[in-house]
């Protein structure tokens, strides 16, 4: 063999690996687009029916209301095998209830705000980020385990990000289309990517879903409480919705793959190149205001067996924005066209009032969908059907007898039929 | 009391109402409909025995297998498309109609946004009286054809996003109905007797037409624009995001595309007994950009006005229910008054925005008004005054007074207002010219029952004056706002207002006085002339800068808000008074009176800087309530300087003062969704009142013997502390219109300026202003209002009460007396309306007061009034209203109670096809009992006065209302 050639190759390889390693020690995880399911969705042709047509189980769990446990509404709900963790709407407290709705503990205080809340199922702990200043670790009974100050320099500004755990010591966060001004005090070194993989100590080790320079600063538009990151069908899988592209990615440890691509009718779809069109910079909101039928994003995506649930909302809200889709049969059902019947005691399964920001269902766990209904809506339904002689399950009969419409919201659990 | 006219009138009223009810035209007016339940009862033609059917069904998109919630379902008569009823489907897509006619072909139409109207014909069998329509299928519209879809029928009510819309075409009213009549038919809308409008309990802050104000008053739009010009009525809340606690509701009337222009007016003349007369005219024109009107009036029955818009309100067309809301004579006014007035207004909108909702937020308007008025009157009055002098007995004075007066005024004003996205600008000017002439004679007699001294005073007064006034005002403000693009806040909360005023006036008087008493040496005669010339200028500048901490500190975290402001007021007045006395023994030769002739210049400067600290807290629970609490503390100081230089050296006064005048307010609002809304506020404020040059150093005019003033150079300013509490409650439970208000206030005035009066042996009053003890006063006011609507019937009840208490001291003949004054009043009223045709009401009113001055005197007076009235109005036909007031007054100056009854009645008829002709017979003070009786109480005096007032007259008026809306045919 030619020694000169051999040495040149070795040298070149070393040079290349040196550059790879020196690039901030961060690896880029490629996006797997080999098996994308393209789904054609026409919301105006979605079907409806009643609760017993689509759900096998509908359960309401009232949450105990005492002076200490009273809260307004739920901004985030986390579920474990034996706990409900409620991060309430003023974002100051986390309330812990058991699976029967009994109040266990409240953490947080009036003057201090909680900016992030992450559940680590493997260590059976949850971490609360207080005002970007410190992380507090709690167990599932609400006992404070440790407090770690968050320093910007050490974490390279990752303390600003919401961490989603994928294993006991690893997780990821989403960055939006961060601006790349290197002179900015808050410059982040992982620019150019939408997903960052971090260790438990918030140190970044790899990134994914890169975006081109001309897309930096892309303003993302999500209504109210809509979520672009949702729990997947296993503990270490999350679904991520990419802005303005109607695409759903699944994120698992060190792996990012595009699972679904939604296609909507032309009148409801964004035009080609919407994200890269520089003339639309900072004008996208006005564009949507003029094109009110166009779906902004696909959000709140869940997969349970062969069924998908997601929200495809446009500025002009309709009753067909929250949808179920069956991957086997291709049937499309609108959540808000499912009427109440005896199987759920004629109680509400979604908010009835004209409400911009709420989709009702906010999480899934072990094959069930979870959300919440306000006591005001529960009691309105109860009053409406007083003369119908409905038999309620004993815990609900008790709730209607002893509680009132100012009580805490009620947790709703839905289990879909396999074939809808 | 003349019986004949009364008998004639009663006969006329009875007869005509009998004829009217028999002759009613077929007014198929729609009655109130309950949205979630019942059906509208049918027009009177069909008997009640038919309205016994029920209709039920479910509206469903069968193709997609789901029911439609909150969709509009309407039932019409198949033969003539007459509306029977409408409602929204419930959560299960179900609808249930009751009291639907049986045995007649009907059709039902289901409609919803994004769906094609679905129609189904049916007939309720007479024997079963019920029909179950089962599933009524509705299909989605074809996307491509959506823009071209023509709706066969129009749903009466729709919810579009956050705006509630009522489609006028779905409501059939009399052809001459106006917007007021349409609003009364809408569910959830209540029009109160005082003109206030509430929608589902929420008060309406503005009524706009096509996004703009209409001729400066909601009443003008409500009572003139025909219902047939209206396309829809929108009800919505404004500024909900900015501050949910103070969300205001507005009503916007959207006119049909081809009815955006129109003219309306009135010409009327009337003549009556005792040679009374009246003439009115009004013509108005409106278009999307311009509004212009011309008005004129001439009468001698005390109907006066001071602006073009109030004259427009008097001359409005009025449809059904409001036809009896007529402007009646002011019976309390003194004298026989002749009024001539007229004016012109114009407003031009420079805004090109076509979306009416957006237009209402972006003003760009030019306005102008010209108004002229001229009134003359003759007043004849007599009064009796009783003055207690304590141990020195009582002074009885009787006087009689005659005067002839004329005054005129010409006013022109204009304004320009423009609002930008983050600010606004307003400029206006006002110019007026005025003049008056008066001639009078007064004679009074005083008798002191202790000294037996009797005096008599006669005087003749002749005065003419004129003046001109000009003012200019400029106001502007900018708002701080958030720019998402740069993620920064921009601009500042800055506001300023500058006003300039100038006034110039002249007055010439000649007064002849003669004073006689039973001591001949004290007799006096005067013939004195006064020539007064004055001119003044005034500048006021007000500035304010808010959110100071946000401007100074980057990323401010301090929750308190600080704002600074300043008010500067500079005024200058030059006055010249030439007083001359007749040289005794000559005719027409005068010499200057050196004691009264004066030339003075007064300059005052008032500078008030202030700094305000405020903080707000709010708490909201989704679906439960929204509460907010705000605090404001204002640290303010006032520097005041007064400098007067005068020929009369006693009036050379130079004063300057400096005071702190802080204030503080706490405000709390509690909005319990769907239940009620309550607001409380508590305010503490201070202010200083500076004595005028006239109070400190008045010049004694020895020809005026009723009041001889003394100088008091030691007179100091008063300092007032005030505490006010208010509470407002509005129920928001649907169908339960109830509101309540409470106001409490307490004030304390230190160094209160009060009278010190001496009565000399010749019954002459010598008066001085002094600083007395601290004055304390308390006030209470409360009222409750409730309206109940049951189908066609509406009951409105209101209850008001008030009380006041004053405590201060004054001096009589050198002695210090504590004076206590207590007053109270209550009123209760119930008004009943039956559809928009009949109404009646009953009311009770009481007011009384009591004054104690030490042990010197105790004086009381009170008035009771009971009233009742009744009215009816058939559109395009007869109308009538009558009202009776029973009055009962008593005072310490009278031996007995005085009772008198005022009874007024109107009776009229509207004719011509569009009800544009009117003939009306009015009878005022039928029982001829009106008297100008007034009682005044002050410290130790009580006066009872009677004057010539308008009394019984009958008048016949003819009026024509030319109207045209939309393009000429």
TrEMBL record, chain B:
<feature type="compositionally biased region" description="Polar residues">
    <location>
        <begin position="434"/>
        <end position="449"/>
    </location>
</feature>
<feature type="signal peptide">
    <location>
        <begin position="1"/>
        <end position="22"/>
    </location>
</feature>
<dbReference type="InterPro" id="IPR041700">
    <property type="entry name" value="OMP_b-brl_3"/>
</dbReference>
<protein>
    <submittedName>
        <fullName>Outer membrane beta-barrel protein</fullName>
    </submittedName>
</protein>
<feature type="region of interest" description="Disordered">
    <location>
        <begin position="342"/>
        <end position="363"/>
    </location>
</feature>
<feature type="region of interest" description="Disordered">
    <location>
        <begin position="434"/>
        <end position="475"/>
    </location>
</feature>
<dbReference type="Pfam" id="PF14905">
    <property type="entry name" value="OMP_b-brl_3"/>
</dbReference>
<dbReference type="InterPro" id="IPR008969">
    <property type="entry name" value="CarboxyPept-like_regulatory"/>
</dbReference>
<feature type="compositionally biased region" description="Polar residues">
    <location>
        <begin position="457"/>
        <end position="475"/>
    </location>
</feature>
<feature type="domain" description="Outer membrane protein beta-barrel">
    <location>
        <begin position="492"/>
        <end position="860"/>
    </location>
</feature>
<keyword id="KW-0732">Signal</keyword>
């Amino acid at each position: 063999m030619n020694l000169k050639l051999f040495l040149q190759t070795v040298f070149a390889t070393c040079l290349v690996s040196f550059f790879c390693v020196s690039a901030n020690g961060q690896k880029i995880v490629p996006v797997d687009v080999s098996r994308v399911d393209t789904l054609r969705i026409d919301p105006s042709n979605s079907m409806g029916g009643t609760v017993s047509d689509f759900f096998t189980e509908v359960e309401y769990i009232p949450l105990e209301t005492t002076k200490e446990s009273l809260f307004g509404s739920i901004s985030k709900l986390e579920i474990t095998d034996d706990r409900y963790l409620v991060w309430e709407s003023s974002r100051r407290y986390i309330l812990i209830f058991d699976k029967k709705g009994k109040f266990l503990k409240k953490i947080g205080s009036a003057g201090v705000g909680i900016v992030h809340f992450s559940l680590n199922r493997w260590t059976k702990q949850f971490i609360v980020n207080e005002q970007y200043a410190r992380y507090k670790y709690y167990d599932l009974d609400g006992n404070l385990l440790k407090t770690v100050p968050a320093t910007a320099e050490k974490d390279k500004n990752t303390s600003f990000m919401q961490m989603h755990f994928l294993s006991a010591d690893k997780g990821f966060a989403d960055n939006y289309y961060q601006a790349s001004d290197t002179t900015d005090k808050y410059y982040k070194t992982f620019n150019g990517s939408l997903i960052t993989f971090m260790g438990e100590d918030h140190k970044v080790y790899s990134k994914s879903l890169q975006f081109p320079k001309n897309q930096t600063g892309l303003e993302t538009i999500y209504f109210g409480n809509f979520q672009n990151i949702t729990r997947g069908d296993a503990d270490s899988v999350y679904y991520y919705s990419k802005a303005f592209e109607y695409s759903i990615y699944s994120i698992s440890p060190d792996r990012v793959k595009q699972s679904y691509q939604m296609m909507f009718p032309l009148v409801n779809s964004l035009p080609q190149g919407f994200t890269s069109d520089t003339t639309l910079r900072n004008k996208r909101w006005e564009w949507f205001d003029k094109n009110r039928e166009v779906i902004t994003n696909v959000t709140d995506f869940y997969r349970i067996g062969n069924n998908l649930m997601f929200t495809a909302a446009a500025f002009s809200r309709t009753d067909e924005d929250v949808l179920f889709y069956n991957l086997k049969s291709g049937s499309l059902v609108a959540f808000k066209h499912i009427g109440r019947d005896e199987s759920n005691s004629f109680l509400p399964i979604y908010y009835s009032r004209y409400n911009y920001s709420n989709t009702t269902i906010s999480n899934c766990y072990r094959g069930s969908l979870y959300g919440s209904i306000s006591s005001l809506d529960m009691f309105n339904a109860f009053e409406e059907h007083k003369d119908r002689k409905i038999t309620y399950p004993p815990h609900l009969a008790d709730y209607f007898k002893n509680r009132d419409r100012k009580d805490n919201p009620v947790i709703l659990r839905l289990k879909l039929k396999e074939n809808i | 009391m003349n019986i004949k006219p009364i008998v004639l009138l009663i006969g006329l009223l009875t007869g005509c109402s009998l004829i009217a009810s028999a002759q009613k035209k077929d007014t198929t007016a729609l009655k109130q409909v309950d949205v979630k339940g019942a059906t509208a009862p049918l027009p009177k033609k069909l008997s009640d025995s038919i309205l016994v059917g029920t209709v039920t069904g479910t509206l469903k998109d069968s193709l997609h297998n789901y029911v439609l919630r909150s969709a509009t379902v309407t039932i019409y008569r198949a033969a003539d498309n007459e509306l029977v009823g409408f409602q929204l489907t419930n959560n299960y897509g179900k609808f249930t109609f009751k009291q639907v006619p049986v045995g007649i072909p009907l059709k039902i139409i289901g409609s919803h946004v994004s769906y094609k109207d679905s129609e189904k014909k049916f007939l309720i069998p007479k024997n079963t009286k019920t029909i179950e329509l089962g599933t009524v299928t509705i299909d989605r519209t074809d996307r491509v054809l959506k823009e071209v879809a023509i709706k066969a029928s129009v749903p009466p009510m729709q919810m579009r996003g956050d705006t509630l819309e009522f489609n006028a075409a779905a409501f059939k009213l009399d052809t001459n109905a106006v917007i007021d009549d349409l609003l009364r038919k809408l569910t959830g809308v209540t029009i109160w007797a005082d003109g206030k409008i509430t929608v589902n309990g929420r008060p309406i802050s503005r009524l706009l037409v096509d996004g703009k104000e209409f001729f400066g008053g909601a009443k003008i739009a409500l009572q003139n624009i025909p219902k047939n010009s209206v396309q829809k009525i929108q009800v919505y809340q404004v500024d909900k995001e900015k501050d949910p606690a103070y969300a205001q509701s507005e009503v916007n009337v959207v006119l049909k595309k081809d009815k955006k222009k129109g003219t309306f007016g009135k010409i009327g003349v009337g003549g009556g007994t005792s040679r009374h007369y009246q003439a009115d005219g009004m013509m108005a024109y409106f278009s999307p950009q311009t509004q212009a009107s011309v008005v004129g009036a001439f009468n001698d029955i005390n109907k006066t006005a001071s602006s073009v818009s109030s004259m427009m309100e008097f001359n409005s067309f009025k449809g059904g229910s409001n036809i009896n809301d007529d402007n009646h004579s002011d019976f309390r006014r003194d004298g026989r008054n002749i009024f001539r007035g007229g004016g012109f207004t114009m407003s031009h909108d420079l805004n090109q925005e076509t979306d009416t909702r957006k237009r209402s937020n972006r003003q760009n308007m030019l306005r102008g008004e010209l108004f002229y008025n001229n009134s003359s009157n003759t007043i004849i009055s007599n009064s009796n005054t009783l003055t207690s002098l304590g141990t020195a007995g009582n002074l009885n004075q009787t006087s009689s007074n005659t005067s002839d007066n004329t005054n005129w005024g010409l006013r022109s004003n204009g304004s320009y207002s423009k609002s930008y996205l983050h600010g606004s600008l307003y400029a206006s000017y006002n110019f007026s010219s005025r003049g008056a002439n008066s001639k009078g004679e007064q004679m009074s007699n005083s008798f002191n029952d202790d000294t037996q001294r009797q005096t008599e005073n006669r005087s003749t007064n002749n005065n003419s004056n004129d003046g001109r006034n000009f003012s200019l005002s400029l106001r502007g403000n900018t708002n701080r706002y958030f720019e998402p693009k740069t993620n920064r806040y921009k601009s500042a909360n800055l506001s300023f207002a500058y006003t300039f005023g100038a006034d110039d006036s002249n007055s010439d008087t000649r007064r002849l006085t003669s004073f006689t008493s039973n001591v001949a040496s004290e007799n006096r005669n005067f013939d004195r002339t006064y020539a007064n010339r004055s001119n003044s200028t005034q500048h006021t500048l007000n500035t304010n800068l808010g959110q100071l901490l946000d401007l100074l500190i980057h990323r401010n975290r301090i929750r308190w808000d600080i704002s600074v402001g300043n008010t500067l007021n500079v005024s200058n007045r030059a006055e010249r008074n030439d007083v001359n006395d007749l040289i005794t023994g000559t005719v027409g030769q005068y010499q200057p009176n050196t004691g009264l002739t004066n030339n003075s210049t007064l300059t005052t400067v008032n500078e008030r800087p202030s700094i305000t600290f405020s903080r707000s807290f709010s708490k909201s629970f989704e679906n439960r309530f929204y509460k907010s609490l705000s605090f404001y503390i204002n640290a303010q100081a006032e520097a005041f300087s007064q400098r007067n230089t005068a020929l009369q050296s006693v009036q050379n006064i130079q004063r300057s003062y400096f005071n702190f005048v802080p204030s503080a307010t706490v405000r709390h609002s509690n909005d319990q969704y769907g239940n009620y809304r309550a607001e409380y506020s508590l305010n503490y404020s201070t202010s200083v009142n500076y004595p005028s040059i006239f109070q400190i150093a008045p010049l004694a005019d020895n020809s005026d013997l009723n009041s001889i003033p003394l100088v008091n150079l030691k007179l100091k300013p008063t300092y007032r502390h005030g505490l006010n509490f208010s509470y407002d409650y509005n129920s928001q439970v649907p169908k339960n219109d109830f509101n309540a208000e409470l106001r409490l206030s307490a004030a304390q005035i230190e160094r209160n300026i009060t009278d010190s009066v001496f009565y000399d042996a010749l019954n002459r009053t010598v008066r001085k202003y002094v600083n007395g003890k601290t004055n304390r006063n308390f006030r209470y006011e409360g009222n409750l209002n409730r309206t109940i609507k049951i189908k066609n019937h509406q009951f409105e009840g209101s209850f008001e009460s008030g009380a006041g208490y004053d405590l201060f001291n004054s001096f009589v003949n050198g002695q210090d007396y504590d004076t206590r004054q207590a007053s109270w009043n209550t009123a209760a009223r119930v008004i009943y309306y039956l559809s928009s045709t009949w109404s009646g009401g009953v009311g009770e009113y009481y007011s009384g007061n009591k004054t104690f001055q030490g042990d010197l005197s105790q004086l009381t007076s009170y008035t009771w009034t009971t009233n009742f009235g009744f009215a009816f109005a058939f559109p395009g036909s007869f109308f009538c209203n009558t009202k009776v007031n029973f009055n009962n007054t008593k005072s310490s100056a009278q031996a007995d109670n005085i009772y008198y009854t005022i009874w007024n009645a109107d009776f009229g008829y509207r004719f011509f096809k569009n009800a544009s002709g009117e003939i009306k017979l009015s009878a005022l003070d039928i029982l001829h009992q009106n008297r100008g009786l007034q009682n005044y109480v002050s410290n130790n005096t009580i006066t009872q006065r009677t004057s010539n007032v308008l009394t019984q007259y009958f008048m016949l008026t003819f009026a024509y209302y030319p109207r045209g809306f939309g393009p000429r045919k």
